[in-house]
Amino acid sequence: MSDNCSRREFFANALKLAAVAAIPVGALKILEPGEAKAAIAKTGVRWGFVVDTHKCIGCGFCVKACKNENEVMYDAPVSRTWVERYVVTKDGEVHADTPNAARDGFTTPKIHGQVIPDSEITKAFFVPKLCNQCENPPCVQVCPVGATYQAPDGVVLVDRTWCIGCGYCIMACPYGVRFFHPQFKVAEKCNFCYHRISQGMKTACVDACPTGARMIGNLKDPNDPVTKIVLNERVGVLKDEYGTKPQVFYLGLDKNVR
Amino acid sequence: MVESAASAIHGAEWTIKELFVYPNEFIYWSIQIVMYPLMTGLVAGAFVLSSLYHVFKQEDLKDIAKFSLIFSFALLFAAPMPLMFHLQQPQRGIQVFFTPHFTSAISAFGIVFFTYYIIVACEIWFVYREFAVKQMKALEGKEGFGNSLLRAIYRVFSLGVHDISEQALHRDHKAVTILAGIGIPVACFLHGYAGFIFGSVKANALWMTPLMPVIFIMSAIVSGIALCILTYIIIMEWQKYRAKSARRAWGMSAEEIGGAEIDVIRKTSKYLVGFMIAAITLELLDLVFRGYTSLKSWDILRSVIYGKDFVNIFILQYTLGNLVPFLMLVIPGLTVRRTAVATMLVLLGVFMMRYNVVIGGQAFSLTFAGYMHYHLPIIPHSIDTYKEGLFGALTIAVMPFVLFYWINKALPTLRYK
Ligand code: SF4
Ligand code: SF4
């Protein structure tokens, strides 16, 4: 500022300063619940997922891809997504397992150390699992510090810088989706590869699946293939009874699936 | 599987899986989450015991009332410690106060806890103000560092209110009654709320019941009274011993102390028995109801309750922890030794109840087709195995006694005459 700073200049500068200072206050405005809802409605995106269990061959490529993509230690027994194998025998017994989250697929016919003779089997199938990005997520409800939250497009996210690591969300998820990240020591879960889908890409697991058993899409877009399946086909969701309103839909879901 | 990767997973260290369990399932809430409701339960119980005298004027509890009030205060400091031991990011624990997310039961922790803390602190002030002022005056002019330190402590404690006229003391008593009155519902809330944390987890078939908060409150009072009686006995026995070895404690003979002791114990144990009946009734109601309604989860619950956890639930908790001490306390001719053993068993029972809820609730998988077994880490070989192992739990358990010892030095809880 020059020496002969006029009164007018001074006021002009002061005004500018005030305007700059006011911006962050505006940015920090707290939305009323109604306003927040309206903001969500406006986004026009609600991510959803379809799993076609008829197509899944249990190769575990999705699990491998997910571990690499999302930096979940390759050798750790936890995983953001996993594949389950179900074998139902003539006596109605259900044998199910997911060895090492099926990271390497299913390399042996043994289930919990037991070989089931082919002649006994009535049906057998694979079921991939991941976070259901529930519409009414209990994990978000119970987080004491709001570190787990639902994005406007429906995806449930964890703020790694804010999570205190109490594990309440892990307890609250009826699907066993959550765990503590071995390295970051905070709650960890599938987030539909949020860094990818928000850039117009598909999730790592969808890209890795050789049979197209996994599909991700925008449920608010009526022309999206995922939305079409959800609207036109007979789809099921997991553990409906908990009232979580899961947004991962299954084609060919069997009553024995846990 | 690489060993280091597996042990980096929180919970993998002490969880053994059986049959079909989801890959991410482990026993995430371990021994410290057993300790947490145990500690808050003791706080609430000790406080309710002291309030029975202050509010409901149960004269028979006069002697133990002061003691249990101070003990409740000491326990109160130790109560949040298990949570700090349990958190994966303890340095962020404070965020619960800064950014509470009020749909979560845990978020109310700060508010409930501090309200209670303030009430107990105020009550102690009113109860001990007279004593502090008198001590301050008595210590006046006495030489020595210890004396001047004590005097300074009493000075600060009195907060400059040195009026101990009849009128002022009457006002003090009134304040104590009011605070103790408010304190009872808050104490019940503090602990009922711990029950709510569990009871509201709909994903957990064993925890989810609206009875959980009430069950927790009742067993809390039971445990608090039992611990007060037990600690009381230990202190009195110690004084008796001192009196016998010619150093006349409190200026009373061993017989005098013994007489006062058994009197208090007989009276207090009546309340203990009453609350035990309430606690057991509720727990059994819960069990019967689950069996009768037999929802989808009942098959696996039954296999855990009547099978895997049978010894923990029916032998250690119900028989040794409830039935045996109950009989010991109601059979006439109660002696000090019998009460001591009975209260120890009651404490074992309450501990096992917490254990069977917290660990038992994670003994079965969300698949309802597999189990998880808990192995308490004994010898620590990492921070996790210390914090969530036997030694971590013991650290928490001795904490209130150490605190009590020091508080008791300045504010004696049991001094006859
Ligand atoms: S599946 Fe579990 S982790 Fe995912 S949103 Fe639902 S409750 Fe939360
Ligand atoms: S573990 Fe983290 S994200 Fe989960 S409830 Fe606790 S603070 Fe929230």
Cα Rg of chain A: 24 Å
Q: What ligands are attached or bound here?
A: iron/sulfur cluster
* Largest beta-sheet characterization of chain A: 4 strands, mixed
- How are the strands ordered across the major sheet of chain A? 11-1-13-12
Average per-residue pLDDT of chain A, rounded, comes to 89
Q: Which range does the strand content of chain B fall in?
A: under 5%
Helix content of chain B: 55-70%
Order of helices and strands of chain A: HHEHEEEEEHEEHEEHHEHEE
Give the CA-based shape of chain B. Answer: globular
User: In the CATH scheme, what's the topology name of the domain at 47-134 and 190-251 in chain A?
Assistant: Alpha-Beta Plaits
Low-confidence stretches of chain B: none
Largest sheet of chain B: 2 strands, antiparallel
Order of helical and strand elements of chain B? HEHHHHHHHHHHHHEHH
User: What share of residues are in beta strands of chain A?
Assistant: 15-25%
Q: How do the helices and strands line up, and which of them pair or pack?
A:
The complex is a heterodimer of chains A (258) and B (417).
Chain A: H1 7-27, H2 33-43, E1 47-52, H3 61-69, E2 82-89, E3 94-97, E4 110-111, E5 114-115, E6 121-129, H4 138-142, E7 148-150, E8 156-158, H5 168-172, E9 179-180, E10 187-188, H6 194-197, H7 204-208, E11 214-218, H8 225-232, E12 235-236, E13 248-251
Parallel strand pairs in A: 1-13
Antiparallel strand pairs in A: 1-11, 2-3, 2-6, 4-5, 7-8, 9-10, 12-13
Chain B: H1 3-8, E1 15-19, H2 31-54, H3 62-78, H4 81-86, H5 95-98, H6 109-139, H7 145-158, H8 166-199, H9 212-244, H10 254-293, H11 298-308, H12 310-330, H13 336-358, E2 370-374, H14 383-387, H15 390-410
Antiparallel strand pairs in B: 1-2
Helix pairs in contact in B: 2-3, 2-8, 2-9, 2-13, 2-15, 3-6, 3-9, 3-15, 6-7, 6-8, 8-9, 9-10, 9-13, 10-12, 11-12, 12-13
The complex binds iron/sulfur cluster (SF4) (2 copies).
